[in-house]
Amino acid sequence: MEVVIVPDAAAGGELIATAIADLLARKPDALLGVATGSTPLPIYTALSAKVRSGGVDASRARICQLDEYVGLPAGHPESYRSTVLREVVEPLGLGESSFLGPDGNAADITAACEAYDQALADAGGVDLQLLGIGTDGHIGFNEPCSSLASRTRIKTLTEQTRVDNARFFDDDIDQVPHHVITQGIGTILDARHLVLLATGAGKAEAVAATVEGPVSALVPASALQLHRHATVVVDEAAAAGLKLADYFRATYAAKPHWQGL
User: Fold this and answer.
1) Which of 132, 189, 195, 198 is a good FRET partner for 204, with 20 to 30 A between their CA atoms?
2) 198-218 as b/e, with b when 16 or more CB fall inside 10 Å?
3) What phi-psi label fits residue 29: left (phi over 0), alpha (psi between -120 and 50 degrees) or beta?
């Protein structure tokens, strides 16, 4: 696992955006897996700035979703599809035809999950998947004790997650869906390059367990240790629990370039 320690979230966003730009230069129609939430916003801001300046041609890029609420009306502003269109697809100058996501309103959700896994495979697989991490080590909505071989599936949101997400629904927990579709850990591991960004002291314990702890279903993100090309980008606060922080700094300083796909 490649670990890069950066000064702050903006630096992490710029670094990852540069890696995506390099990927698009090599493979203009790359399939980029994106995550929602506040953590990846610096990546999207930096990448869209590169597109606007003419430094990146994203016109043929494809975007796919990590997860989606079940049961929100089509076009609901807080659906993850709407969020990705608003924060990623539109700023990059792309259209909805470039976008892949699971159907959270399907009559048969199980079939919709299987169909999404198949759609990703039919698209040639995800070239680079962006990930965040929860304070308990979850990735996507794969909570602790999720199978490390799991595929895209429906999950029930914990009460705490619904409470946390109520801020996006006018602080009304009754509006927060009870279920989501999420890529499983096995599905995530199919991507060619995994890039996890974590910022803030609240993520330090989860980052340490992910990078330096044993591979365990109790820490779903630890499955990244099994991947052939996983990069973890953390700011100084999120790196505070890493015993090998100095080693990671020295290693990256000696090789300040991203490993090729």
Assistant:
1) 189
2) bbeeebbbbbbbbbbbeebbe
3) alpha
Residue of 14, 143, 190, 235 marked active site:
143
171 is catalytic: no
Domains of the chain: 2-254 (3.40.50.1360)
Bridge partners (DSSP) listed for residue 198:
234
Give the whole-number percent of the chain exceeding pLDDT 90. Answer: 89
Catalytic residue at 246?
no
- CB-based contact 125:191 (threshold 8 Å): yes
Helix, coil or strand: residue 104: coil
Q: Tell me the pLDDT tens digit for each residue of 70-106.
A: 999 888 999 999 999 999 999 999 999 999 999 999 9
Q: Is 103 a catalytic residue?
A: no
Distances (CA, A) of 131 to 43, 65, 110: 11, 11, 23
Active site residue 22: no
| Whether pLDDT at 260 is above 60 | no
| Predicted confidence (pLDDT) per residue in 243-253, tens digit | 999 999 998 88
Q: Tell me: pLDDT of 24 over 80.
A: yes
Cα distances (angstroms) measured from residue 116 to each of 23, 93, 121, 125: 24, 24, 9, 11
Rounded mean pLDDT, 157-183: 91
